[in-house]
Amino acid sequence: MLPTEVMQLAQQEMLDWHGSGMSVMEMSHRGKEFIEIASNAEQDLRDLLSIPDNYKVLFLQGGASLQFAMLPLNLIGKTGKADYSNTGAWSKKAITEAKRYGEVNVCASSEADGFNSVPDFNDWNLSGDASYVHVTPNETIGGVEFPGLPDSGEIPLVADMSSTILSRPINVSDYGIIYAGAQKNIGPAGLTIAIVREDLIGHAADSCPAMLNYETHSKADSMANTPPTYSWYLAGLVFKWLKDKGGLQAMAETNQRKASKLYAAIDGNDFYSNPVAVNNRSWMNVPFILKNAELDAEFLAGAKQAGLVTLKGHRSVGGMRASIYNAMPEAGVDALINYMNDFAAKKG
Ligand SMILES: *Cc1c(COP(=O)(O)O)cnc(C)c1O
User: Which domains are present in the chain?
Assistant: First the structure.
């Protein structure tokens, strides 16, 4: 979901942005109007996450999936090696891609338990000479979330935060790089944000295409070529909305409450279950299965009637998945819980 207020504002401004006589879609990315939109969005994101001055914020394209390649292309060359944790479908993809560019040490894996937990940080096998340590703090498909971070010492921690960024406050300086595709918790698809510590810029392999080099984007303020202007603008409106809502501390409180009540509803009814270790359960993505998978289609059809959509689990795991990102109001979670209870009472 995107916040309704954001879409309404975009609708009002669609044909004529602030009296400019242009839609944001029609602006030159080098014109003063768009430069203002772009820099306000960056500043609001910096404020929300308290991003320190020695980090660049890059507005990129290609999704988080392109970061799976861009990251090693820029950084793995330092020692030729990187540590990756393997905690779900997205880490696995990141690992597969990184292997094209260097040696990958899988420093922790929960694959043997079906990706239903995060390996205890004390048991991680960090190689000590990795160029960076890569983690996926929220595994979107499995609904598995890190309870904290491993201690990687001086080695930069890189996090794919596609499905958890802006869900709560974080300490940016714990990370070397944070990246996220926009379409989960930031704005519409087409934009990818990378928050990169400055000393990690400028180390790309010679063979790295210019457009995949963090340095190119950093030097050009993310305007080395035409950026995804409309997605950038909408992301900026979402950042303003988050500030108006009280920022990330307020978001964290609402998100935690939303998730807790949904898990309580699942755990409290033996018609439903969630396989994830309790202290690794995601606030953002809540997968659950019905006791009888033959009722899945009926559950989904009834949910749609009740205005509850996009509940089908990822094709790789089946069952259901409720993604309850920032823009999902608590009332939406309440409606889902009511529907689940009614359905179980009728069919259980
Ligand atoms: C959705 C997602 C991706 C893939 O994002 P794209 O922007 O579609 O490439 C990668 N990592 C995580 C954690 C995701 O949730």
Answer: 4-244 (3.40.640.10), 247-347 (3.90.1150.10)
